[in-house]
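Tutorial, part two.
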Amino acid sequence: MAQYFLASPLPADILVPVPLHVHRMRERGYNQSTLLARDLGHTLNIPLDEENLLRRKDTPPQARTPSADQRQRNVSGAFAMRSRKLKGKRVLLIDDVCTSGATLDSCARVLKRAGSASVWGFTLAKEI
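Running the prediction step on this input gives:
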């Protein structure tokens, strides 16, 4: 991921992983997007914020949801900001897999409403 980013850099002040709901986090014990973001941030020397973007709604995994419309409905209202700490920041949103883009879109909308200057999505894989 870091090599790809370095080859085509996106302007970023901070990395933000897509959060898991507290129930899924307890169940799994880790957030794969956070692990990716930590490694990328360390390699690129970009700070990480894993506290401000919250997942309020426990949604089913997007990969198991058959339609793009249903995926969009699943994540509608699922995310919120804890503070406006990211106001004016260029955010690079990190997720493991992009299925339809609904999760990234929902997170980006919340980040932009909270005042982020720009939000780019960056994923390890795209489901085909």
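The CA atoms of residues 39 and 73 lie 31 Å apart. In part three we will examine how such features are distributed along the chain.
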